[in-house]
Amino acid sequence: MISTTMKILFTFTFVKTVSPDHMGPCGPGEEQYFTGNYPAAGFCRPSSGSSGSSSCSCSCLGTSGTFHGDWTPCSVSCGHGIQSRRGIRFDSCGSSHNLNPETRPCNQQPCPVNGGWSAWGQFTPCGKSCGGGIQVRFRSCDHPSPSNGGLSCIGDSLQTASCNSQQCQVNGGWGTWGQFTPCGKSCGGGIQVRFRSCDHPPPSNGGLPCYGNSLQTASCNNKVCPQLITLTNPISIETTTRPPSVNHRSYLNTKLKRYCYS
Q1: What pLDDT was estimated at residue 150?
Q2: What's the confidence (pLDDT) of residue 32?
Q3: pLDDT for 45
Q4: Residues 11-53: tens digit of each pLDDT
Q5: N or C: which end of the chain has fewer CB within 10 A?
Q6: Does residue 138 contact residue 121 with C-beta atoms inside 8 Å?
Q7: Exposed e or buried b for every residue in 127-157, given b needs 16+ CB within 10 A?
Q8: CA–CA gap between residue 235 and residue 46 (Å, rounded)
Q9: CA distances from 38 to 54, 89, 99, 120, 252 (A)
Q10: Contacts of 247 (CB under 8 A, 6+ apart)
Q11: Residue 221 region, left (φ>0) first, then alpha (ψ -120 to 50), else beta?
Q12: What whole-number distance in Å separates Cα of residue 207 and Cα of residue 196?
């Protein structure tokens, strides 16, 4: 039995039902039926042979009242939730009877989906074979893609890395030729040389040396040298016979040439 206080609280939610049938006890040829399937609020009516009939008597007036509680919070914030509430039925005798929970859908809108990063792809080939290059790789915000107002992915879609940081090989290169040395002879064919160095640039880090010669030769002073002549007969040159106007040295040379080639 419900307390007097509870009766007062729920008085205004009672719904009075007037039945053309009379309340129990039921007589011959009558059966008891119940409002809301609760035995305490029963009435008598002519028997219909229903399996739900009962021969018990009822002593309470056939009136009832129903009270529903608040709806529960939705089971989810989005994406097809359910909320429920419970009800209580009161009969005129003051007895309470729980009703089956009532449900309704709620928050039927699709849920926001925040974006998620895919796995990183492969790095691209290095931009250099030596001396420090850069390679890159990418990822996409599609695992899943943002939808229904969800947030985009946080972070970068591109990543860089250094590669091939070892020093490059440097092949040697020739410098310019130097000056030729003086000729080894003053006549009769001599040799002079000049040099160059493999230092423009010098080979390094396993680079190749210069290809070719670092020394170059050239012939020089190829004219025939004068021959030394031995005279078998002494030459008597009268210096007094030279003309007064002729230089003494020139006069002697002229005399010697005439003798040697005559």
Answers
A1: 93
A2: 53
A3: 58
A4: 333 333 333 444 455 556 555 555 544 444 455 556 555 444 4
A5: C
A6: yes
A7: eeeeeeeebeeebebeeeebeeeeeebeeee
A8: 190
A9: 12, 9, 10, 66, 171
A10: none
A11: left
A12: 19
